[in-house]
Structures are given as structure tokens and as C-alpha cells.
Specification:
heterodimer, A: mainly beta, Methylamine Dehydrogenase, Chain H, five-stranded mixed beta sheet, four-stranded antiparallel beta sheet, about 50% strand, B: alpha+beta, Alpha-D-Glucose-1,6-Bisphosphate, Chain A, domain 4, 3 helices, 7 strands, about 25% helix
Chain lengths: ~325, ~180
């Protein structure tokens, strides 16, 4: 999902002159930390990992039971809430991120997998893997699930920063659906590589990247024109994409690696060995670290984006998938 | 191997045509291991050739091409019928490990889809080693609400049965007479 901004809201609004704001951001950065909410699918839990003040000292701080094989996760921009899909339980769980409590479990039917949340915290968009449709859930009115059509086997979901457009990666149609969030209509279909799974938007919402499991590449989409601008070769069975600075990081499930390429030149930059079956991937708010959930190894890898290598690895529990925007900002 | 064949024999469903590569949302993993009273070199010599799956009792013959190069293929013909087509995607003799995936199998033979697997020999000491067989796969039925013969439990049971039978047979073969 789109990379989060730096810690601007820590700065009192009154002091937010441009120069002062920049300076304050530099000072504020070490005082912030992030947490990872990892769906440990076979363990039927969400592991909570404190990533440390430097972003590279991960520590397991919580385990939240969520049954039904949890897979997808989306944390709200304000860090208050984590939404988790359980495809086998056919439910969306609403988790209070600070207290680690499951506030609600909303039955949605179908095969809920990918999930994304609108910038203002609602609604929540859930891909129905079996239903070729997007389930639109308002957590305050759980009984009222609206529906938008997608292609076959929608998996990854992304919402533009203005909340106006929702994109789904339609795995079994090799397409991305463009959905008007207000009307819940499918207003565009973009042909991408084979078997797109994860989809990630740039911070400005202008570009989208799909990880194409079947063709071992990433499709770069210009959102405004709904056109493909490039296809970038990566490793075997790519799963998802994270963006940090000018770089894209792609988990390659079969290769046990993360491919790194430059989003401007599209040139490859590195191939980083992580654990077996890397899946969910996300970048820290400051872009200095990228976190990778290794499904087979049961670990979280921490990549330093300056040196492009793994600087920490943590055991997190059985089968982390962490498919979605799994990072949460916390004020310290 | 009884489990494997019993599970296979139990399946007599008329299956819907499936989209290539379609699968359910919950990938399963199975890891089985065995300790063998033999050096890692000796164990690797017995099972480290992608073109010879003869140590797995259910396999009648292995036919393939490409040796132990990445993208090499093999077809396992099973005793009592059925075949499994596989492709090698990682071969690391220095790690005593290789990884492959199934390209074609009827779910009546093995009720899984999108199956990949790794075999690795880890030395314990000069005369002992441990073999680990890891698999990642989805159940045989790619749609919601699977029939019991093709659900997650059936897939895990079948793969576990194959691994157990193979590892136990490998151990028996290598320890015989020692």
C-alpha cells in the first residue's frame, strides 16, 4: 500500500511554518515507532511486532486470536484500527490496534481475502476471492454490506489517497479493475501481467504496481489514463510490492528473495535474500526500512533501504501472510 | 504410502473443469523429518538426484530430462497408476537441498494444487543426519466450501502420508545392515 508520510502531525499546527516543520520532522523521527500487524494464517492469530525506535529492532509484543485463517490486513491511516479478513471464517474482524482487542467480527460471506480501508477510515473494501466482487463494509453499519463488481478472483485492493477510486488486482482475469468509490461502479479494466495478486499505489496515487504471480513481473500502471506504462521482470512468483523513496520492493515467493528496482528508471537495483516464501511487504513511514513476512520460515525480515540488505530477522509465529497495509504508526 | 493410495482411491468425484492455477485462499504447509544413522553425504547420495525418486515406495519409475539443472522435469509413474509431473526450480548440492513443484497432477492422485516442495539433508554429526521434507500447497478444490475429499484436511493428510512413507523408507534403506 502507499507509503505513509513522515511524522508531520506531531508538530503543533501553530508552529507549522515550512522551515520549522521540516526541522521538526527530523527531530520527531526517532521519537516515533511503528508496529506490524501480521496475519499468522495457520495459527489463527494476528501477531503484533514493535519495530523499535530505530525501525530495525523488532520485538513480538502481542498475539491476537482471530480464527478462520486470517490473511488480509489493513490498518487505518491514523493507526487506530486494524481490519483483518478470514477467508475460511468468511468474516472481517475489527481490531482496536492500541488495546489489541477484537471489537467486532463482521460476517461478510464469500471468500474475503484482500482488504483496504478508505483514507478517512471507512468504508472498508474487501475482495471476495470467489465472488468476482468487492464487498464494501461500513464498520458502524455492519449489516449493510454494499457490492461493486470486479474481475475474477479479486485479491489485492488499493484506494487512492483522495478516496475516489478503488483498484483491485483480479487474479484469474489478468486485469486490474478501476472502481468508482462513490457509485461503486467498475469504470475501467486494465489488462496487466498474468495472475496479478498484490497491488500497491504510490503515495500520490498516480501510479499502481501489480505483482504478477504467473508471469514473474510487475506491471506499472498510470492511474489517470488507466494505461500500462511498463512491465518489470522480477523473481519467481511475485506476491506483493512495497514502495520506499524511489525504489520498489517485490516479494518473490518461490525464490525466497525481494527484487528491488528503481521506479523512475525501472532498472533493477538488487536481489535480497529473505526467508522462504516471502509474502506481505510494507515500507516504514520514513522509507528507511522495508518489512517482509516470510510465510514458510515464520519470520519477519527487516530490510535497510539504504544498504539493501536484511538487518534483522524475528520469529513471529506460524505462517505470517500479512497481505496488505500491515504497518501501524504509534506515537511515543 | 497406504494413506496416499487410500486417499487417492477414495476420490471418485466428477470434478468441475478448473481454471489453470486457480486455488483457494489458504495455503497449507507440511514439514516432516527423519533422523538417519548415516552421514549427510551418504544420505544425499541416496536421494539427491532429481531424476531418481526410487526411494519413495509408491513410485514405480522416474522419467525426466535436464538432469539436476534448474527447469529440469520429471514424471513420476506411481504403482497402481497415476502420474505426477514435476519441475526443478532450485538445486543446491552444497546445501544438500533441492526444490521442485508439481506442474501436473490429477487431484484424484494427490488432492493438492499449486504444490511446491523442498528436500534438505542437514548433518547432525559425522555419522548422523536429518532429512527434512517441506511442502507448500493449496487444497484440491479451488472454490469455496470444498467437499471433504478435497478440503484442506484431505490435502494435508495426503501430503503428510507421502512424506512420512518416503522418509521412513529412506531411513530403513540407509540403515539396513549398518
Amino acid at each position: 500500500m502507499a507509503r505513509r508520510r513522515t511524522a508531520a502531525h506531531l508538530v503543533p499546527a501553530a508552529a507549522a511554518g515550512a522551515g520549522l516543520l521540516l526541522l521538526a520532522q527530523v527531530w520527531a523521527a526517532p521519537a516515533r515507532a511503528e508496529e506490524a500487524f501480521l496475519t499468522n494464517q495457520p495459527a489463527n492469530e494476528v501477531a503484533v511486532v514493535d519495530l523499535g525506535p530505530d525501525g530495525a529492532s523488532p520485538r513480538l509484543v502481542g498475539r491476537i486470536p482471530v480464527h478462520g485463517s486470517p490473511a488480509g490486513v489493513a490498518v487505518t491511516k491514523d493507526g487506530s484500527t486494524a481490519f483483518v479478513t478470514s477467508p475460511d471464517g468468511k468474516a472481517l474482524s475489527v481490531i482496536d490496534a492500541a488495546t489489541r482487542r477484537v471489537l467486532a467480527r463482521i460476517p461478510v460471506g464469500g471468500g474475503p481475502l484482500g482488504v483496504a480501508v478508505a483514507p478517512r477510515g471507512r468504508p472498508v473494501y474487501v475482495a471476495d476471492w470467489y465472488g468476482a466482487r468487492l464487498l464494501v463494509v461500513d464498520p458502524d453499519h455492519a449489516g449493510d454490506v454494499r457490492i461493486a463488481p470486479t474481475g475474477a478472483s479479486p485479491s489485492g485492493v488499493a484506494v487512492t489517497p483522495d478516496g475516489a477510486v478503488v483498484l483491485t488486482a483480479d487474479r484469474d482475469d489478468d486485469t486490474v479493475s478501476v472502481i468508482d468509490a462513490a457509485r461503486l461502479e467498475r469504470i475501467g479494466v486494465i489488462k496487466v501481467g498474468q495472475r496479478p495478486f498484490g497491488i500497491t499505489l504510490s503515495e500520490d496515487g498516480r501510479r499502481a504496481y501489480t505483482a504478477n504471480v504467473g508471469s514473474d513481473d510487475v506491471t506499472v500502471i498510470d492511474v489517470a489514463t488507466r494505461s500500462v506504462t511498463a512491465t518489470v521482470k522480477v523473481g519467481a512468483r511475485p506476491y506483493a510490492v512495497a514502495l520506499a523513496g524511489d525504489l520498489a520492493f517485490v516479494t518473490n515467493q518461490y525464490a525466497g528473495t525481494v527484487s528491488v528496482f528503481d521506479t523512475t528508471t525501472l532498472a533493477p537495483r538488487a536481489t535480497i535474500h529473505v526467508g522462504e516464501y516471502p509474502e506481505g511487504i510494507a515500507a516504514s513511514g520514513d522509507g528507511r526500512h522495508v518489512y517482509v513476512a516470510n510465510w514458510s520460515d515464520n519470520t519477519l525480515s527487516v530490510i535497510d533501504t539504504a544498504v539493501l540488505r536484511v538487518v534483522a530477522t524475528l520469529e513471529v509465529g506460524d505462517g505470517p501472510r500479512a497481505f496488505g497495509a500491515f504497518l501501524r504508526r504509534t506515537a511515543r | 504410502m497406504k494413506h496416499f493410495l487410500a486417499a487417492a482411491a477414495a476420490l471418485s468425484l466428477a470434478l468441475l473443469p478448473l481454471a489453470a492455477d486457480a486455488h483457494g485462499p489458504t495455503r497449507k504447509k507440511v514439514t516432516e523429518s527423519v533422523e538417519i544413522n548415516a552421514s549427510a553425504d551418504k544420505v544425499w547420495a541416496a536421494m539427491g538426484n532429481f531424476q531418481d525418486m526410487g526411494w519413495l515406495p509408491v513410485v514405480e519409475k522416474t522419467e525426466g530430462k535436464g538432469g539436476n539443472e534448474v527447469d529440469a522435469t520429471r514424471t513420476l509413474t506411481l504403482k497402481g497408476g497415476g502420474t505426477i509431473d514435476e519441475v526443478l526450480y532450485k538445486f543446491e548440492p552444497e546445501q544438500k537441498s533441492y526444490s521442485y513443484r508439481i506442474t501436473t497432477v490429477d487431484v484424484k492422485v494427490l488432492p493438492v494444487t499449486n504444490y511446491s516442495s523442498t528436500l534438505v539433508v542437514v548433518p547432525v554429526d559425522a555419522a548422523h543426519s536429518k532429512v527434512e521434507w517441506r511442502g507448500a500447497f493449496y487444497r484440491g478444490y479451488p472454490n469455496n466450501d470444498p467437499p471433504p475429499e478435497l478440503n484442506d484436511d484431505a490435502a494435508v493428510a495426503a501430503v503428510t502420508g507421502v512424506y512420512r512413507a518416503g522418509l521412513d523408507a529412506l531411513k530403513a534403506k540407509l540403515e539396513k545392515g549398518s
